[in-house]
Design a protein that fits this description.
Length: 132
Amino acid sequence: MTADPFLDEVRFDADGLVPAIAQQHDTGEILMMAWMSREALAETLATGRVCYWSRSRQALWRKGDTSGQTQRLVELRLDCDGDAVLVRVDQTGVACHTGRRSCFFRVADGGAWKTDQPVLHDPKALYGHSHG
């Protein structure tokens, strides 16, 4: 038995991660996709502040620690197979490290990717260095 037995229903992959789609709770806007470990998921549920797992840093990633662009948990949903979560959030500011509201700002258009969202915050101002 674990501390959070209902988390046993989440099917984490071989690396102990589950994909997490962040969606703005009131508009339905898809903001980003990230990964959650069991610990990140448990912390998110316990604190109400969304926490992910950073594969590049191999550490918990509390959304907004660096940028101030936080996500407050509104609702957490598990898909039918138990292998993906939908994190319905109240996003403060931008979700994307490029300074855009959403990470899904490129649209397939005639064999090319078209950008359809403006940069709202300079990534250098958010993180101290620029991102793509």
